[in-house]
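Posting this for the archive.
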Amino acid sequence: MTWETVIGLETHVELATETKIFCSCTTAFGGAPNTHCCPVCTGMPGTLPVLNEKVLEFAVKAGLALGCTITKSSRFDRKNYFYPDLPKAYQISQLYLPIARNGKVDIGGGKVIGIHEVHMEEDAGKLIHDPWTDQTQCDYNRCGVPLIEIVTEPDFRSPEEVLAYL
């Protein structure tokens, strides 16, 4: 059996909204740890997410700018992760029905990058490692910050080709 290396890229882009993707918590950078989170973005029982319309608007604009087809229906899914910086133990993402598909970007010189999809998702928190105390603490301020993930068509054949495009 012969194997062929095929490499695509996933790029996470933070959207410049004032509030998070599914709640009204601020996306402002630099607050004290765990001061920009609420029961919704930390996944407390009984809370329900409500989509920030600005996130949808920005995702559609990005899809159009990347030459994608905007899908007539899209859906959010739960991707389960058991990491300490993800208090819900899942991430809300568009795993199966993304907002935009099948685009391309001409980067000049006859080179075109295919765009497989653009989907919306929420960011996780972050871990803060303190080597002096040998402790790791969680900061959930970033949980729920809106992202789009841009996924290229897998057409690179080697890591060297990927680096040549960057």
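The chain has a mean pLDDT of 91. The chain is about 10% helix and 30% strand.
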